[in-house]
Amino acid sequence: MIAFKEWTLICDALGRGTQSIILRKGGIAEGRAGFRFQHYEFLLFPTLFHEQVAKLKLPPETAMPEQRPDLEISLRARVEWTREVADLDAVRRLAPFHLWRDEVIEERFRYDEKQSVSLAFVRVSRLVPPLIFPDAPRYGGCRSWIEVPDLSGETAAEKVLGDAEHRAREQQILAALCD
Fold first, then answer.
1. What is the pLDDT of residues 64-93, one digit of tens each?
2. Could you tell me which of 16, 6, 169 has the C-alpha nearest to residue 100?
3. Residues 140, 71: contact at Cβ < 8 Å?
4. How many CA atoms lie within 13 A of 72 on its CB side?
5. How far apart are CA 8 and CA 14, in angstroms?
6. What one-character-per-residue DSSP string does 21-51 give?
7. pTM tops 0.85, yes or no
């Protein structure tokens, strides 16, 4: 099964329903073509990157989860639409809809000669029960997409946001992109 590597605290925000977008420039291992949302349904693989608290709009006392011997994936995302956003002002208008600090998003935007970020508007569901499996070196590295074990046939998925709230947020995000 395919999984998308994202910071643990961003996965938490997606799982709480406080965030419905993913902004990405790409990882070191994305290759010459750069990053793109090449999968439209995937599991969210939370990554423990300890500097993330300083790079997010969170209180500095926010605690990172402890590293455990087993990995746990509790969220699935379905991409409803994507945009390559090449207007920095439009990217800045998205600030109310994500946790990344402005300077982090601007750094991603300006990372290479192609000044832009990839945006995905996602519908997130919580997996019941979560997928739990042993950590292994193949899950490491600076790449966005990885293969993880398949879900059990007994796994259910419960939408994090109701339909009305999800659609209202979508309209707010689209309006921010078009202002």
1. 777 778 999 999 999 999 999 999 999 999
2. 6
3. no
4. 13
5. 10
6. EEEE---GGG-TT------SEEEEEEE--TT
7. yes
